[in-house]
Amino acid sequence: MPAVNPLFQGPFSWRKLRATIIKDILPEVIFFTLVATMVSCVDMLTVATLSIPNQLLTVLGTILGLVISFRTTSAYERFSEGRRTWSTFSVLCRHTAQIIWHHVPNERPHKTDPALSKPALYGIVEKKSMINLVSRRMVCSVHMLREEPGVYYEDLYPLVCVLPRYAYLTDGSRPSDLLPMWQASLAGQRSDWKPPALKKSATTLPSTSRFKVGFDPEKVLPTVFSDIPLRPARNPPPGSFFDYFPVLRPLKRIRRLFSRRHETHEEDGVYESDAAERKRMKELPVSNVPLEIITYLNGYNAFLLKNAFLLPPAATSLTNTLASLHDAVSTLDRIRTTPLPFAYQAHLKMSLWLYLFFLPFQIFRAMEWLTIPATTFTSFMLLGFLEIGQEIENPFNYELNDLDLDGFCLALQRDLHEITAHPAPLVPDDYIFTTWNQPFAPADRRPAEEILDDTLHAHHDDSWKESVRQTLLQNWKMVDAETRNH
User: Fold this and answer.
1) What are the helix and strand counts (H, E) for the chain?
2) Over 70: is that where the pLDDT of 12 sits?
3) What is the mean pLDDT of the chain?
4) Are 465 and 471 in contact (CB under 8 A)?
5) Which one of 184, 213, 310, 396 is CB 3.0 to 4.6 Å from 315, fit for a cystine?
6) Residue 25: which H helix or E strand, with range?
7) 35, 372 contact by CB (below 8 A)
8) Contact present, 335 and 343 (Cβ < 8 Å)
């Protein structure tokens, strides 16, 4: 979700209107305005009258308003739950990385032969690789929520390509022995693929992306070769003229009826019609990539437990965190796959249309020519709230009103790299007992190093406890006096 108003961020563009619901409700608003205009003209310019009693206007309007309010509230609850769950997901990923980086030792001693022990660098490489996998756990969840199968994406493949591809690691492995993640990914590719070309320029980011032109976060990932062309990290549906004028969408369908060749979409040198693409995707084997990645993380946890590389409290915390990670992804998938029942949405839509259609017939006697703007405003307001409910019901897509999943993933990537930038394990002596640290300030502003070296001070006597406690009590008095708002 954008933190600022997308309409006033950066230079003006017609594409920014896609952040509003005006384009979606405009045809309906125009239709009901024309109905109000027709009623007003007939009643004012002819002897005929189209007015009807308005006894049901207040009752039906109140009921309909409550139902629309419930519809919008339920959609926002899904949106809010998605954001809370995603925040929990991010916290769990950071916690997993903290445990792996700080609690798993770097040394790999051999139990029987010390000569076979592995150096500390081996453990650092191992831990950093698993933390990279934690980062890709969130990225593959984003692709799953956006119904983008497989792992051949520029932001996912470079860090998961190291995972095993075959069920049996032998030289005679066959394509049928591929693990589900790779088998489903390969099945999603065309047989007439072309050799991988140069990576797309950073200036060709999708128009619906929230990233500025020239921003290419995938360039910080490892540079690896792929025998199959990688899809872009973000694959929003291509915009078209009909997205801004939805009232003309029937013309697009009529044109397709008389044309054998559907519109094609170009992406990384691959040409395919939208209808054929959807049909082919439905026939592919489905693989739960986040589940497979969490399987490898659980396998790493089992490896640590088997070799006693984790103390029991840290091992319990890591096991519970991995289980919570799986629960968080399941919650996100539940939000995506459980929309409001279609029967409820259809009935509410038809009821609102009938109400707005008969509205000018009931209010004309009281408002006359003002019936036209009143109907326009009422239809714009009620239809807008209804459309907003449908817009935010699934907050995981590429619309500007959806959650900024790409930004969340990049924020997590930065945080995990920040965690691994600190040495592990951290030794307190390296930063506590220095001249920079004044632990007893403001009562005693001496550095920690000087406090330890000053053996003649009362802190080093037999009654050192009383001296330290007096200093800490004096700290409280001074801080309370200086920071309290009188």
Assistant:
1) 15, 2
2) no
3) 80
4) no
5) 310
6) helix 22-45
7) no
8) no
